[in-house]
Amino acid sequence: MGFRIPSWSYDPPYPGYWGPVTSTLNFCEEDYYGTPYAAEIVNTLTNLMFAFLAIKGIFNYPMQLVDELSMIYTTCLMCYATFSYSRSRLYAFTLAMGLISLALFISLFHHYLQDSAFHQRAYAVLTVTVVARSLYVMEFTLRPSLRNNEEAFKLQHRKSMTADQIDLSRSDDRRNTRILNTMWLMIAVGLTSFVSGFGIWQLDNIYCSKLRTWRREIGLPWAIVLEGHGWW
Fold it and tell me: For residues 223 and 216, what is the distance between their CA atoms, to the nearest angstrom?
């Protein structure tokens, strides 16, 4: 008899306390297998800040909409912040009205279709737009602006600058470079996190049946490692 890591098996699914499943979307994590009060236990534990929504949804359709559309609304806010930078008030107001209209259209059309694929595509397009605009602003607006301001200041005050002022100017140059480098690092970390989560999500969708089989063979709590929904 070979050595086996201590574990306990998955329980049969309980009847859900929150009522029948009305969500149009279900993930690879099995439903109500540990308690009738949590549809997806691992997803609940990894989202403690949103514990109530995680416990009650996303198997309730209204809560599914809250979960999905909040992603759209947050990305629209980010879109407004990036595209309204250094723009007039009229432009910012027009952009805000346009984004509100877009968010309303996505909400209504998503509810009409009840197809999560539409939501995923809309979210992906908005996210790519925000990232592309952020990179453009950093490299074609912020960096040239900082460089031009520094050069103009040095040309104007080069002869009258003291040694301390020269050191201070060089310190400002280094600070501005550090700020831009930090922004690039934040973008790299964010993109890595997003791509990793997307990759785990796809693996969860493609190999769901195999993952469920492996989880039941391994047993709890070790099978939590294979609960992709809890990771992404």
Answer: 7
Letter for the amino acid at 111?
A: H
d(CA 60, CA 17): 11
Is 38 in contact with 11 (CB distance < 8 Å)? no
End-to-end CA distance of the chain: 37
If phi over 0 gives left and psi between -120 and 50 gives alpha, with beta otherwise, what is residue 19? left
Angle between helices 116-137 and 163-206 (to 10 degrees): 160
Give the pTM: 0.58
pLDDT in tens, 30-67: 677 777 777 777 666 666 655 555 444 445 666 667 77
Tokens 């592309």 identify what position? 132
Residue in 138, 102, 127 with CA at minimum distance from that of residue 197:
127
The band of 106, judged by pLDDT with boundaries at 50, 70 and 90, is very high
Percentage of the chain modeled with pLDDT above 70: 66
Q: Give every CB contact of residue 86 below 8 A, 6+ residues apart in sequence.
A: 141
Close Cβ partners of 131 (under 8 Å, ≥ 6 residues apart):
187, 191
Residues 6+ apart with CB under 8 A from 198: 232
CA distance 52 to 38: 9
**Residues paired with 220 in a beta bridge:** 8
For the beta carbon of residue 155, count every other beta carbon within 10 angstroms: 9
